[in-house]
Amino acid sequence: MNIISKIKHIPIFLFIIYFLLSNRNLLDTLLIDIGHNSILKLIFFSLVTILFFFIYFLFFLIRNTYVRVSFGFFFLTSAFVSQFFFDISGNVININDIEIALLNKGSFIDLVLNYKKKFLINFMIFLFGFCLLIYGINDLKINSKKHYYFSLVFFTALLSISLNRGGFATQGLPSQLQVLIPLPLILFSENFEYSNNKVSFNSNKKQNNVILIIDESISFEYFVKAIESDTDLENFKHLKKFYSIHNCSAQAVFALMNGIKFQKNNIILRQSLWTLAKKADYKTFYFSAQEKPGKYQYLQTLKELSLIDEKFFFSNFKNKERDKILLKKLIEVTSREDNQFIVVIKNGSHFPYFDKFDLEKYNLKEDSDYKLIYTYSILENSINFLEELLKKLKKNSDLIYLSDHGQLLNKQKLSHCNSVNPEVEEWEIPLLYFKNNQNEPIEISSNLFLYDFIIKKMGFTNEVYTNKNNKLFYGNFNKRLNKQLKFRTLK
User: Fold this and answer.
1) I want to staple 344 with a disulfide (CB 3.0 to 4.6 A). Which of 2, 213, 217, 240 is the partner?
2) What is the pLDDT of residues 241-259, one digit of tens each?
3) What gap in Å lies between CA 435 and CA 441, rounded to an integer?
4) Can you give the residue ranges of every domain in the chain?
5) Distance CA 139, CA 120 (A)
6) What is the pTM of this model?
7) What's the Cα-to-Cα distance from 194 to each of 61, 103, 261, 279, 301, rounded to whole Å?
């Protein structure tokens, strides 16, 4: 092959480089996130990726520069947004993320300033792809118009799948499609809306520190059993049986952090706790014993992430050590100064329960009664955690403790996150409130009121939400294309 032939093939090589750079997370998504759950889905999305690679390549072969750039620009933009979103959040973008981003488009400049390094990297990749698109690959010829007919069928099929899934099914797609496929649904199918209710702030009612601890998979029934095992009941004398908003972790945390309201069969979002914390001039902290750095799994929006001053992650430690190490760091941070808003995502007692604490301490084995193991897991990781924290926490904080969801200890069904006929135990959780390290009563009549209780501690007052029933949601927070939200009402 002579030098001229080599030069002609350079654009093809650069195209491959661009495709790989703009899909840096795709291999992990396919092999780990999808492959570990379903081989059939792995095969399907792998084929989609291969087919799209060749179809995308066709756009670079179009000889008319204006046509080539006009069509290709949408793919470039989708790739930029999708990969930038993943680099910040660790999540694959979906239709809900796109809608929330459009609702918060005014915060784009702040987002870029907070994540300027990641933005710059992805923007340079975008420019690289754009230059390739302008230059094109003119040394190859398109054999037939059949290529374009096939492309049309391919995109129609993907759009149909997205329509059927209400705008989801983006995980596993190349970044060039993750925004482009669900985006048309936004034009005629809104799912979320923001509340226009005003909140008033009174600095005299603002508490020094507000700490929100969200445990993992803690059943109210077994929390009580764990307390009865060997505990000072004074710290838990006002324990309240409460109900999570959702029976899945991510949706439950998202609903609480964004203060969802339910009106006219629609989800309404309020200002996030992070937003209000910054308005109240708190320094904000995020502790997570489950997520890897930059791999947020609780549906945090990009705007929220930009409002967190310091983040601490503990997933690199063994399961039974995570909450203990987190506790030490939490005590250290709270001892520094006042004026802090802290959110803690604990590792808690997620299934399998046996790897969450030292079994030998209680003469247990992995094959011991799983209900007994679960009870002692709560004792170790929740009860003892709170007691140790209260001993060392400065007496200048308001602390709210709850679990993301409950547990159904029935081997015939999932312990939580059932999307078909779930049981009420999946929502039953403990709720505790401590003021200056003393357990105080917390009078909340609905799980949708906890957000109001928290912002009151920040110094805000809000319009009172009148529906006093607990709403127990399950499945996706998604009602697009005439789909109905799944929930139960509990008085």
Assistant:
1) 213
2) 999 999 999 999 999 999 9
3) 10
4) 3-190, 194-490
5) 32
6) 0.86
7) 44, 8, 10, 18, 14
